[in-house]
Every structure is written in C-alpha cells, then in structure tokens.
Amino acid sequence: MKRIVFISTAFLISLLVTRCNSKDEKADAGIATTATTAAATYGGFESQVKWGERLVFLAGCNDCHTPKKMGPHGPENDMSLMLSGHPTQMPPAAIDSKEAAKRGLIVTQTFTSWTGPWGTTYAANLTSDSTGIGTWKEEQFLKCLHEKKWMGLEGTRPLMPPMSMMPATEMSDDELKAIFAYLKTVPPIKNVIPVAALLPPPPPPPAK
Questions:
Q1: Residue 60 falls within a domain, yes or no?
Q2: Averaged over 120-149, what is the pLDDT?
C-alpha cells in the first residue's frame, strides 16, 4: 500500500513539474516573440525610444541643437545643455547681416546660430520643456519636418537653413515618430529661443 501511495505521489509531482516547465517555456517564448516583434518594428532596437535615440545620434541633431563648449581638442557638445538650442542669453554674432546676405556667407555662433542670405536663424530647443517641444503633438512634429513648417503649424513661416536642408526632413513617419518619442524623454531645459531675424526676399529681376 505504501508503495502504491509513493508511486502516485511521485507521478503527481512529476506531472506538476512538467506543467510548470511547460508554462515557463511558453512564457519565455512569449517574451522572446514580443522582443523579436519590437526589434522588427523599431529598426532592430528593443523600443521606439531606443531607436529614436540612435536616429538622433546618426542624424547629427546635437551638432546644431546642443551648444558647444571648449574642450581639450576644441569645441565639443556641452551635454549639460543637450538639445536645448541656441542659448537665449547669448548676444547675436557681431556681423553685418546685409553684407553676409550680399556675399552669400553663412556664419555660425557656437554652432547654434546661422546667418546667411535669408537672415539669421537659431537652433530650436528640442528638450521636453514647455519652451521646447514639451507641449507638441506627434502630428505637429511630423508636419514640421515633412512640410518644413515652423513649429508644424499652419500659416507659419517655412523652416529656414540649415534645418530646411537637413536629412531629417526626408525621414519616414516611423523614423520621425521614434525621434519624437525619444525627444519627449530628454530632460527639460528652460530656454526661450530668440526670434529668427529674417531678411526680406530680394526684389525680382527687372523685366526685359
């Protein structure tokens, strides 16, 4: 009798262990499938935010939108101000805008201020602060880049150089959505960007 009870108990334990292992294997398979699906959806990365972070790096967003400081090998990104745009307290570059326009010059100031034939434009604040893109909607961000409209709003001026010429304007919706998702995680930095000083368009050539 004891032998029968022992065998029955052993069988039940074995059955329970088998079922638990089966559940664990299915759970692991589910996790693996979810991770694989996410990687396929987000450019090989585990999340949309991680993909966006990589795209921001590859697109060189920090080149213009992060102010520079002098390092041991020359200017370098000041990551304490990452993606906060042109510092509002910095005075405009001491140049003659009209002369620059006449000669077709482009002048940069800490790589966040650009002057050329169109006037002077400033790198935008891309952080999650309200002075950056903290209140923006995803569709607004896509409209800004795809249609080259300032702030992604109807009736606003077009984006000015250099942003209007950047490869980000040619990215797919999914790529821009990933960038936007990442930018929403960037620490907020309060920094009001100066208003662009745009020169009037040149007069049309005289009629012949």
A1: yes
A2: 96
